[in-house]
Design brief:
mainly alpha, about 0% strand, globular
Length: about 200
């Protein structure tokens, strides 16, 4: 059993072990959706919401259904099914109560299902043997860390729109370079806290 405090796990998953900047999970939607701050904030909130609830649900499913019935060999399939079902529910909810947000997120809302950051958070929860509260804290911190990174990138991309960027670096090239620089900045926090 992991004895790391929930607060340490929460803060570390935002900064020192940021799921996007330290593990490079969830880069595809990060690169594409970070072109507008409003969309980045909306997707960041949606990813955080999904990460918190799927971490909790998958913890319960894993430790109270799969392990007791010796079905843990199905864990990857079940984790993905839970994530997909929860995202489908979220998509229907947003479409019903906020059509503007639904259309601004477009195809990226259903693609949260295949955002490897969410699946990675669930796998890290199991690998690191977190208890339920630690899992929820880790999911919340990882979601906030991912949201922080995408909003930060959206702000930087807006500023880069006014800059002279060499033709060869325009588009994904400069975004990956800036992402690397941001990741190195977050690595500076490494000695402070760790979720390992």
């Amino acid at each position: 059993m992991n004895t790391t405090s929930v607060l340490a796990i929460f803060i570390a998953s935002i900064f020192t072990n940021n799921i996007l900047l330290a593990s490079f999970l969830g880069l595809c939607s990060f690169i594409v959706v970070s072109n507008r701050i409003e969309t980045a904030i909306s997707l960041g909130i949606a990813v955080t919401f999904v990460m918190v609830f799927t971490s909790a649900i998958n913890y319960i499913v894993y430790y109270y259904i799969l392990i007791p019935f010796k079905l843990d060999f199905l864990s990857y399939v079940v984790f993905i099914a839970v994530i997909a079902a929860f995202v489908q529910f979220l998509e229907m909810f947003i479409e019903r109560f906020s059509p503007a947000l639904y259309y601004s997120l477009g195809i990226f809302l259903p693609l949260i299902t295949v955002n490897c950051a969410i699946f990675g958070a669930v796998l890290f929860m199991v690998i690191r043997k977190y208890d339920f509260i630690q899992s929820v804290g880790f999911g919340f911190g990882s979601g906030l860390g991912w949201a922080l990174a995408i909003v930060l990138m959206a702000g930087l991309r807006k500023k880069m729109g006014y800059s002279k960027i060499p033709e060869a670096l325009k588009g994904p090239g400069i975004i990956l370079i800036v992402t690397g620089v941001i990741a190195m900045t977050f690595i500076g926090f490494t000695g402070m806290l760790s979720t390992q």
